[in-house]
Amino acid sequence: MQNHILSIILFTPLVGALVLLFVPKENKDAIRWIANLFALGGLLVSLPLVPMFWSQMQSADRFKFIEGVPNNWIPSIGAGYVIGIDGISFLLIMLTTLLGWISILSSWTAIETRVKEYYVWFLILQTGMLGVFMALDFFLFFVFWEAMLVPMYLLIGIWGGPRKLYAAIKFFLYTLAGSVLMLLGILFLYFHHHALTGIYTFSLTALYETAPKIYSDPAYGPGIATLLFFAFFFAFAIKVPMFPFHTWLPDAHVEAPTAGSVILAGVLLKMGTYGFIRFSLPFFPDVLMHTKVRGWMITLSIIAIIYGALVSLMQKDMKKLVAYSSVSHLGFCTLGIFALTPLGLSGSVLQQINHGISTGALFLIVGILYERRHTREIAEYGGISNVMPVYATITMIMFLSSMGLPLLNGFVGEFTILQGTFMENWRWGAWAVPGVVLAAAYLLWLYQRVFFGPVTNPKNEKLHDLTPREVLTFVPLLIMAFWIGLYPKPFFEILEQPVNQIVQDVRHPRSGAAVNAALQATPPATAAVTASSTRGKN
Amino acid sequence: MFFLSHIWLIPLLPALGAAIMFFFGRKLQKATVSAVCVGSIVLAFIMACGAVWQYSAWSSPGEHFHQPYQTILYTWLGTDTGHLTYTTHDGAQAPFQADAGFLLDPLSSIWLLFVTGVGMLIHIYSTGYMAHESGYYRFFGYLNLFMFSMLTLILANNYVLMFVGWEGVGLCSYLLIGFYFHRKSATDAGNKAFIVNRIGDAGFLLGMFFIAWNFGSLRFADVTQLAHSGRFAIGDPYITAATLLLFVGACGKSAQLPLYIWLPDAMEGPTPVSALIHAATMVTAGVYMVARSNALFVLAPASMKTVAIVGALTAIFAASIALVQNDIKRVLAYSTVSQLGYMFLALGVGAFAAGVFHVFTHAFFKALLFLGAGSVIHSMSGEQDMRNMGDLGHRIPITHRTMFIATLAIAGIFPFAGFFSKDAILWETWSREGGAYRLLWYVGYATALMTAFYMFRLMYLTFHGRPRMSHDAEHHIHESPVSMTAPLVALALCAIVAGWLGWPHSLGGSDRFTAFLEPVFATEANVLQQQGRTTQLEAGAKEEERNTTGEWVLMGLSLAAAGLGWGMAWRNYRHADKGYTEPIAAVPPVYNTLLNKYYVDEGYDYVFTGRRKLGNARLGVLGLGEGSSWFDVHIIDGLVNGAGWITRLTATISSWWDKWIIDGIGVNGPAILARMFSYPARLFEWGLVQWYALVMTAGLVGFVFYYVYH
Questions:
Q1: N or C: fewer beta carbons within 10 Å in chain B?
Q2: Are B55 and B1 in contact (CB under 8 A)?
């Protein structure tokens, strides 16, 4: 089982989707039970990975549990079914299986139309997301990356709110535009690898060796490397979403069904940050270390933190408020990534997990009120803690976790990111810190308007508190929030090796700037570089 | 050494109480709730006493002489391997690590004792005060959670864990201020408290990062040791930055200018909360943090000066507002802000022990004043406006007498607690650094006069003069139950004797308080010595010896000020009847400015929060928020939608082009032409055989006729 654990985790949801195809669509409850069973099964099969990973954590291999060898899938083009994980993808996979189960469980009463299609698409989406985090082959990665897009598009477009078509198409086209650029980038790396080695392959580990060389390659040089960085950047930045590519997110969230929002915020956004960590950093170390690109990335991250929080403050729709708060939180994540320090990176990954937990819970929270009242206007509510005390308590804890209160998860991530960033450049840290104040402002204000005061709207008087099933959706999230807040050491231990490896790759690449510097030190070589780069342009 | 090695249990006990309330509180009887929550604090108090007692034995001359006791539970942040590191200012790699570790030294001992002691009394008091409130378990759960946070703050062995307690007390403060969550004013005040505190916390965070950057560690022991090592010059810019930022945090938590605004509003919470959190314990956290960082502050003279100046200004600023307030709790709130200013003044001039001493005495008499005010409000069925009180003295005698003791203490009348601590501060301000701070002494002295005046004003308006309440309210006046009066009496006792611990040498005492704190603060002298400023030290010592007479003169002056303030209040308010006049009201602009608290809240709303519009423009955070939202919807999303619109437009144009030009002219055009030209031809060939036959016949007939007749 150890050899195929990743494939089992990856395809369990897909098997569920196939099984569902054979159930008559009128039999809604059977469909719900089967879908929930496979979602829970998806979580359960992923649990053995925890002790397995823990025992292999110290091994020197960069990727663990590798299945398949390069080029075994479509040898003629060099595509392979190669999957494997390191600490970063391990945590994201566990987050995905957990949130996948929770969001399917939360859909029980929320989805009444076209139930069968809903669960089928959801399970397919689940496999797509897991595949993205596991793929060690660029072709395979791109397949999963695009495969994930379609189910999400349908989830928003079919089961969404009043402006669902606008939101779904915006989401789809925006993300697709980024993907196209990334595809061009991938092909460039692919042919470049062939040019250097004579081998056609999409294997990630192979490309890790050659891609960093583009920067100092006389035929291409820093300009081309920077362009390539941006080809990938657009795909990931749109997904994250980084300022100013974020406007699809509020629309998608507002229109998506609750479970869709949970997955969208909890996992899909992490594709972007994961992409940066897995591809942009190791592929283009010199672009980051020796050009102004990193300054831009940091600036955009800081803008996202402050700007997202400010816009969030002004929202009148709860879901939109949470969506903009995601922009702010993800700003912290990208800030940690581009600080390029072990602390910044590990804080960033931890914060991605935290954001999945807290914001996932926040979307569930909004969904619960929406299911009861069919409105998300903040002004429609007030005094909810009188009628739904359990709900109010859970909400308060999740709000506190989201605003980074110590002993809950959010603080650990934010603190690590901020310290990691500060040590790289204290001004960056100083600029990001006001985001912490603003987070308290928009969340507490929201809480006051929705939960405090007397019940002024007669429609809210009869609201019933959480059902056991609804409580069940929150329990794992609460446990995780307290666990990471109180005892994050295991998470740091899991991340220690991969983040140090990546920082090592970026700051001391095997080729690149050093080579370049050596070239420039000797005049004839410099002349050769200029000559050949002109030739390259011709 | 059970108590000492288990000091982590002290914060954990109330945490347990809070957890029980969280899970089961709703189903529990009030008596059970009281037993659990008060019981946890009583146990914590016993453990605290035991721990301090064992600590003093442990650290007595011998192996651990003057050393702090530390115990580490586990590594909280970071890993044990030491591979997760960051680069410090000097390029070294430092491990990223924060322990769940606890530290006991004289400084934390003092806080530990009065926090658990006063906390215990206030818990007992609350069982009486809150007896008729709904949400009883919620209240005690929050109180226990507060005690947990406060004790974590005190006992932490590093800045990050201290920050845990720091934010935790802020949270509990928020929850308890907004305890009556039906009232918008209460929840507004809660939000204000949390957000203003968060501004301070942001400063604390950055200060911490500067410390980590410079010292490579956030443990107090490491930082102190490095700071004393002489590696850092006095006036090091990064240490100055770190200390100033820490002080921003202290300003937030301890309500100093300009972040004091939340504390007066915090009086929306139940009165025991005001006593515990907003008078005795939480608001002194800033003082604790600065005192804890004394090794850093002495390396940053600019920060010390800032602390002293901000403290003195806050002291007089808040005292002046307190002169004219009519709400009994608001007077006490501004009084607290003002007294906290005194404490920072002491820290700023370098008299750390004096500042801590004032924290200690203040905890007792200010808690007593608030609890007394609570007892008054309780007996007046919720009335807080002193204009509607009067002549309560003989109706609630225990409250009256205990509050009177507290007033004597805060006004600085010999030999009550406040006399000793306030006198120590004023004397140090006068004499430190060869009199460099004398200007601040005048400020402190004026504040002392004001303090006596507004406190005795409060006493006379409440307990003397003519009864000014409605007949209905008058009917209900009753002394509070024993659960409330017993803590008052206990605190009154402390308000008398607590000061005696620091009986000064000049009056024949031995100042045991300062001696006890020596291991924490004496090191400051070491630093000065290492930096080669011994002459200054010696000069200071000499001057101190010479000036015992000077100290007596200053004491006399303080007493005179207190007496003067008392006398002025006695003259004006002793016979206060309905429609009594305020002496300051003779100058309306001054009176209105003070009554409206210098319009600071309004100013902040215009400039910083943006809750009020300045003309048509909204400034502040809300203004920025509005601007950003507009930008988001119209510019960014506008561009996105614009791109979509352009795509659709080009698509429409292409499809039009396709339909009408390419397909129309290019493809269908020739077809139409061909059809046009083919039309005449088609006339001949339209497939009707009979017609062909007719035409043929006609043609044939034609030919025949042609040939026949031609």
A1: C
A2: no
> Which of these, A266, A269, A274, lies nearest to A402 by C-alpha position?
A266
Token code pair at residue A373: 């009242």
Contact by Cβ (8 Å): A412, A364: no
pLDDT tens digits, residue range B489-508?
A: 999 999 999 888 888 877 77
Token representation of residue A498: 């991969």
CA distances from B317 to B249, B265, B565 (A): 20, 16, 17
A93 domain residue, yes or no:
no
Task: Find the radius of gyration of the CA atoms of chain B.
Answer: 38
Mean pLDDT of all residues in B15-32: 91
Domain membership flag for residue A149: no
In tens, the pLDDT along B90-131 reads 888 899 999 999 999 999 999 999 999 999 999 999 998 888
Mean residue pLDDT across chain A: 89
CA distances from B551 to A451, B346, B424 (A): 57, 16, 9
**Interface with chain B: mutation pick from A313, A354, A393, highest number of B CBs within 10 Å:** A313
Quick one: which of A326, A351, A353 has its CA closest to A339? Answer: A351
CA distance B385 to B383: 6
How would DSSP label each residue in A453-479?
S---SGGGTT-----HHHHHHHHHHHH
A478-A481-A487-A489 Cα dihedral, nearest 10 degrees = 130
**Exposed (0-12), middle (13-18) or buried (19+): which is B515, by Cβ within 10 Å?**
middle
Which site among A496, A499, A500, A507 would you substitute to test the B interface, given the most B Cβ atoms closer than 10 Å to its Cβ?
A: A496
Q: Which helix (H) or strand (E) holds A371?
A: helix A342-373
Q: Is residue A346 within 8 angstroms of chain B, CB to CB?
A: yes
From CA A261, how far away is CA A317, in angstroms rounded?
Answer: 14
Q: Tell me if chain A has a CB within 8 Å of the CB of B185.
A: no
Chain A residues near residue B629 by CB distance under 8 angstroms: 310-311, 314-315
Q: Find out whether B280 and B321 touch, Cβ atoms under 8 Å.
A: no
How many angstroms separate the CA atoms of A62 and A85, rounded? 8
Give the mean model confidence (pLDDT) for residues B525-546: 55
Q: Give every CB contact of residue A374 below 8 A, 6+ residues apart in sequence.
A: none
3-class DSSP assignment, residue B617: strand
Nearest CA in chain B to A396: B175
Residues 6+ apart with CB under 8 A from B283: B253, B254, B255, B263, B277, B336, B340
pLDDT of residue B49: 94
Residue A338: partners with Cβ closer than 8 Å, 6 or more residues away: A276, A288, A294, A297, A298, A301, A344
- Beta-carbon neighbour count of residue B101 at 10 Å? 21
CB atoms within 10 A of CB B303: 25
Residue A307 lies inside a defined structural domain of this protein: yes
Closest CA to B444 of B254, B358, B336, B315: B315
* Residue A209 structural domain: 158-537
CB nearest to A311's CB, from B77, B80, B629 = B629
**Residues A286-309: b if buried by 16+ CB within 10 A, e if exposed:** bbbbbbebbeebbbbbbbbbbbbb
Judge whether A440 is closer than 8 Å to chain B, CB to CB: yes
In a domain, A418, yes or no: yes
Distances (CA, A) of A255 to A161, A175, B696: 4, 17, 76
Q: Residue B705's Cα: distance from chain center in Å?
A: 124
**Is the pLDDT confidence value at A196 over 80?**
yes
- What single-letter DSSP state applies at residue B54? H
Predicted local confidence at residue B531, as pLDDT: 55
Strand pairing report for B93-95 and B85-87: antiparallel
Interface probe with A: pick from B159, B632, B646, B648, most Cβ of A within 10 Å = B632
Q: CA-CA distance, B321 to B325, in Å (whole number)?
A: 7
